[in-house]
Specification:
The protein has eleven helices and nine strands. By secondary structure, it is α/β, with parallel strands linked by helices. It has one domain: Alpha/Beta hydrolase fold, catalytic domain (Rossmann fold), CATH 3.40.50.1820. Strands 1-2-3-5-4-6-7-8-9 form a nine-stranded mixed β-sheet, sandwiched between helices.
Length: 275
């Protein structure tokens, strides 16, 4: 592993080899009990830097770049269990570095990846999930995935993102236009090609939903007060089935509170960890 340290921001970047040989990159901040954070689709670990910096006051925080973006490599073969293997590799580094099993945090599709990681046997101390888009009421992408993939094939990334906003995120045109006016949009567009395979894996989780719902790990659900109904519904499903689960509703927030209110998100995670 090659290590590079940014002394101005006190962030260390590194890579670890996953089970298939792919190098998975991550950023480390702070010291103390470990927290591993897994970002969602069309993003990188950088989107969680402000939350990570807050938690780093008393924790060792590992911000993963999932495969296919940022600090990480990629491979032709892709499955949800591949993502789980990547996360497991970072968890092992975090436990080796700190001597303690990590708290695992996942956002959106990253939260589904964390569920699969735990389902496949990874050892963690607890699990925090921010709105995993589980297909509890039907497919998340469904027939619209073909339209999205076609837009990606012709490199109409803005068009693909608008298809996704309407049909996958299920937000209004006004909300989409507002999001398109923010600095987040350009980053989304760069990563739209990686979403196609992830959406297919999301819809395929119907076969393991019951197993996700029975995981015995101590868990926290973060839910935006004004998030789309299908995301709230997926969290409600887990809330009603997981054996050891708590919930925090983020006032006035939707699916991107980690960007819009990082202090509030970090506070919710810290309070859960301290119980």
């Amino acid at each position: 592993m090659t290590e590079v340290t940014d002394t101005t921001s006190e962030i260390t970047t590194d890579t670890v080899q996953s089970a298939d040989g792919t190098l998975i990159g991550y950023r480390r901040l702070g010291s103390g009990p470990p927290v591993v954070i897994v970002h969602g689709s069309i993003s990188t670990g950088e989107q969680w830097l402000q939350v990570g910096a807050d938690l780093a006051a008393d924790h060792s925080v590992y911000l993963v770049d999932r495969r296919g973006r940022g600090l990480s490599g990629d491979a032709e073969r892709y499955e949800l269990r591949t993502e789980a293997a990547d996360i497991t590799a970072v968890l092992a580094v975090a436990e080796r570095d700190t001597g303690a099993p990590p708290v695992l945090v996942g956002h959106s599709f990253g939260a589904i990846c964390t569920l699969e990681t735990v389902r496949l046997g990874a050892e963690i101390s607890s699990l925090v999930m921010y709105e995993p888009p589980l297909p509890v009421d039907g497919p998340v992408a469904g027939d619209h995935l073909a339209d999205y993939a076609e837009a990606i094939d012709i490199r109409d990334y803005d068009g693909a993102m608008r298809i996704a906003a309407e049909n996958f995120l299920r937000i209004s045109k006004e909300e989409t236009d507002g999001l398109a006016a923010t600095p987040l949009w350009a980053g989304f567009l760069d990563l739209t090609p990686t979403w196609t395979r992830e959406l297919a894996e999301i819809d395929a989780t119907t076969s393991v939903l019951a197993e996700f719902a029975e995981l015995p790990v101590r868990s926290l659900l973060l839910v935006g007060e004004v998030s789309p109904a299908h995301l709230i519904g997926a969290s409600e499903y887990l809330k009603s089935t997981l054996p050891d689960v708590a919930e925090v509703v983020l006032p006035g927030q939707s699916h991107f509170a980690h960007v819009l209110d990082p202090t509030g998100v970090a506070r919710s995670i810290r309070e859960f960890m301290s119980r």
